[in-house]
Amino acid sequence: MTRKLIAGAVAIAAVATVPAQAAQTKTVAVKNNSFSPGSVSIKKGDSVAWKWTQGGISHNVTPAKGGAGSRTTSTKGYTFKKKFTKAGTFTYVCTIHSSMKSTVRVS
Ligand SMILES: [Cu+2]
């Protein structure tokens, strides 16, 4: 009887901890002065985390079409995370450095 209970508990735990499709987060480095990599491909429900890996120079991550983005900061280690729930191609820029572009492809 004890053995059956343990087997049942293990089976329930396995189902609970292995979702069909786990959401993932891809990291984009915010460098001076580029995003690396310049584009990432993710699935609906996944997130992108832009992380300031160098610091010392102010940057931001702002939707090219407008809307809310990150704060402007030069703090190394600062991270701006966003979850994408719709398919499409989304472009982000640093409004201070026009050459900095970050593309997110969501399928
Ligand atoms: Cu910048």
- Our count of domains comes out at 1
> What structural class do you assign from the helix and strand content?
alpha/beta
Average predicted local confidence, pLDDT: 89
Strand content range: 25-35%
- Proper CATH architecture: Sandwich
> For this structure, what is the CATH homologous superfamily?
Cupredoxins -  blue copper proteins
Helical content, roughly? 10-25%
* Biggest β-sheet: strands ordered side by side in the sheet: 2-1-4-6
Number of helices: 1
**Rounded Rg:** 19 Å
General shape:
globular
Bound molecules: copper (II) ion
Can you tell me the CATH class?
Mainly Beta
Distance between the termini: 48 Å
Give helix and strand order, one letter per element, not per position.
HEEEEEEEE
Note the main sheet: 4 strands, mixed
**How many β-strand stretches?**
8
CATH topology: Immunoglobulin-like
List keywords for this structure.
single chain, 107 residues, alpha/beta, Immunoglobulin-like, four-stranded mixed β-sheet, 1 helix, 8 strands, globular, binds copper (II) ion
Walkthrough of the structure:
The protein is α/β, with parallel strands linked by helices and 107 residues long. It has one domain: Immunoglobulin-like (Sandwich), CATH 2.60.40.420. Helices cover 15% and strands 35% of the residues. It has one helix and eight strands; from the N terminus they run αββββββββ. It has one helix at 2-17, and strands at residues 25-30, 35-36, 39-42, 47-52, 62-63, 79-83, 88-93, 101-106. It is globular and about 40 Å long. The N and C termini lie far apart (48 Å). Mean pLDDT is 89; it is low at 8-12. The chain binds copper (II) ion. Copper (II) ion (CU) binds at residues 33, 59, 94, 96-97, 100.
